[in-house]
Write a structure and sequence with these properties.
By secondary structure, the chain is mostly helical. The chain has 2 domains: 1-202, Up-down Bundle (Growth Hormone, Chain: A); 215-425, Growth Hormone, Chain: A, CATH 1.20.1250. Helices cover 77% and strands 0% of the residues. The chain has helices spanning 13-20, 23-35, 37-44, 49-75, 85-103, 111-138, 143-171, 175-200, 215-223, 226-257, 263-276, 278-287, 290-306, 316-349, 357-385, 388-391, 398-423, 433-436. Helix 7 runs antiparallel to helix 11, helix 12 crosses helix 14 and helix 13 runs antiparallel to helix 17 (398-423). The longest helix is centred in the C-terminal third of the chain and has 34 residues, at 316-349.
């Protein structure tokens, strides 16, 4: 006999906070890796852009294979504390060591050191993140509460990214000194977040009645879900569009808007607007549906991107407004797919079925990482070939080429995702309104 979902206690504000805190150090590490570390190892350490770029891409490609394995192994783990917590403890310990090696290297290092440090970083990031995030898919039977759990993680993701971006400027440190400070901040927040999570986040352990699955059988089970395939396809398309916009934002501000000194402001607008508008997307998901909320955000972002060609050099106010609208939709792109996935996972695992949340999430993570590799392998080489970084928007056809990658292609991708979501199956049989808000 199973307890009715209506009788299971909801998370209070403190528990939602404690659930999300551990996302902050992960976000700090992610931003440091994207913003500071490539240039630091390539220029300050003298390893060269080509070698550093190749090592970083290799790490991301390896993630595509290790993420599903970690997800499956955490699904199949049996312990008195549940399947995820032992992995989280091991992940925090290993990630803390890897962060120190990666962000605070000795004065002189070679390619072998970077390969080892980055490899450990990527591996232990996955060991910590996949089991931790999987709990968010499984822990609540309430449809709307899953959006709140995803929203808590999204808010702390912004907090972590802002801390990592602002810390060097606040402290007035050099890049090397700032990376050292960021490393120790990440380590401290990891342990604080883990303690808060283990102490205050209720994570009931569900008994598994089905026989164990091999990794191949589990992957086949996950990919056989038609709803998941449509969700995964939509997520890949939207993330690919977002990676183009986020990756080219700096070039847009410098060469199109002509406001080099405001690069930090524009990046901050993207981060803050994604957090500020989260309540709107959660409200729309409760009022209508999660798919409707996400589709609204997709269409709004495409509309904002369509305005980009009309913003010229010196149009700072217009560029800020457009970037604010674009950033406001990033929150929906983050929490709605995760919350919809939680609905699928909870329904799939209900009534003693196999635990598959870790694998579901890990495959989604692999797709997300792939989406950030492919566009950069397309847009940057083309822009480099035409010399955009040297001539800017003044070169022959340079403006049209840049706008294709920054505006036209992301619009096309988002409209494609909108169509996929529109023709896709229902992602969950929604709970009755009165039970969902009881």
């Amino acid at each position: 006999m199973h307890t009715s979902d209506d009788n299971i206690r909801r998370f209070n504000g403190w528990q939602l906070t404690c659930f999300g805190v551990l996302t902050a150090p992960l976000a700090m590490g992610g931003l440091a890796m994207a913003m500071y570390l490539p240039t630091y190892y390539a220029v300050d350490m003298g390893l060269g852009l080509g070698l550093v770029g190749a090592i970083f891409v290799l790490g991301r490609l390896l993630d595509i294979f290790t993420d599903p394995l970690i997800g499956h192994w955490s699904d199949e783990t049996h312990s008195r504390y549940g399947p995820r917590k032992p992995w989280m403890v091991a992940g925090v310990l290993g990630f803390s060591i890897a962060v120190y090696l990666f962000l605070a290297p000795p004065d002189a290092v070679g390619p072998a050191y970077l390969l080892l440090a980055s490899g450990l970083y990527f591996l232990f990031y996955t060991i910590l993140d996949v089991p931790y995030s999987s709990i968010g898919l499984e822990v609540s039977p309430h449809v709307d509460e899953r959006s709140l759990l995803a929203g808590s993680k999204a808010i702390f993701q912004v907090v972590g990214a802002v801390l990592a971006a602002a810390l060097p400027f606040i402290l007035g440190y050099s890049v090397g000194e700032a990376l050292n400070a960021i490393a120790w901040s990440i380590i401290a927040l990891c342990f604080i977040g883990l303690i808060l999570f283990l102490s205050f986040v209720p994570t009931p352990v569900r008994a598994i009645e089905s026989p164990r699955l091999t990794a191949i059988a589990a992957l086949k089970s996950v990919l056989s879900d038609r709803r998941y395939r449509y969700l995964l396809g939509s997520f890949l398309i939207v993330q690919t569009a977002n990676s183009l916009v986020a990756g080219l934002m700096v070039l847009y501000v410098i060469h199109i808007v002509g406001a080099t000194e405001l690069v930090g402001l524009f990046l901050g607008i993207l981060l803050f607007s994604s957090a500020v508008f989260l309540p709107l997307w959660i409200y729309l998901s409760k009022r209508y549906s999660k798919r409707t909320s996400w589709m609204t955000a997709i269409l709004l972002c495409a509309t904002a991107l369509a305005l980009v060609p009309f913003v010229g050099r010196g149009d700072v106010t217009a560029a800020i407004i457009v970037s604010l609208i674009i950033g406001s939709t990033f929150g929906a792109d983050a929490i709605m797919p995760t919350s919809m996935l939680a609905d699928i996972v909870y329904e799939k695992e209900r009534d003693g079925n196999n635990r598959l949340g870790g694998l579901y999430l890990a495959v989604k993570n692999s797709v997300s990482k792939l989406s950030f590799i492919v566009p950069m392998g397309l847009a940057f080489p083309v822009l480099g070939y035409i010399g955009f970084e040297k001539t800017g928007a003044d070169g022959p056809n340079a403006m049209l080429t840049f706008l294709f990658f920054y505006s036209a292609l992301p619009i096309l991708l988002r409209l494609t995702a909108l169509y996929v979501l529109r023709i896709g199956p229902d992602f969950i049989v929604e709970q009755k309104r009165d039970s969902a808000i009881a």
